[in-house]
Amino acid sequence: LDVPVEQVAAVATLYFVGYGATQVLWGFASDRLGRVRTVRIALALSVLSGVVGILAPTVGVLAVARLVAGAAY
User: Fold this and answer.
1) φ, ψ for residue 2 (rounded to 5)?
2) Which residue from 10, 27, 29, 50 has the least number of CB within 10 angstroms?
């Protein structure tokens, strides 16, 4: 992507923020929707964000994809 290291480091930070911010939400979703449905939703989000991250044309798109990937984990 030919960007400075600082921008790539920010992408990693967004992943961790997404991961930490949604742990409680996944617990509520699991209680509401059931474990299997919640895992399927998380898996679908993970696959989608992974594909978008692989095909990302810019660091901004990659950052959003990694944020969603972290939130889906």
Assistant:
1) 55, 60
2) 27
Can you read off the two tokens belonging to residue 9?
């480091």
DSSP, res 46: H
Residues 6 or more apart whose CB falls under 8 angstroms from that of 17 comprise 67, 70
62, burial (CB in 10 Å: exposed 0-12, middle 13-18, buried 19+): buried
Secondary structure of residue 32 in the 3-state scheme: helix
The CA angle 35-23-46, to the nearest 5 degrees, is 70
SS3 1: coil
Question: Are the C-beta atoms of residues 48 and 71 closer than 8 Å to each other?
Answer: no
Q: Token digits for 25? A: 């939400």
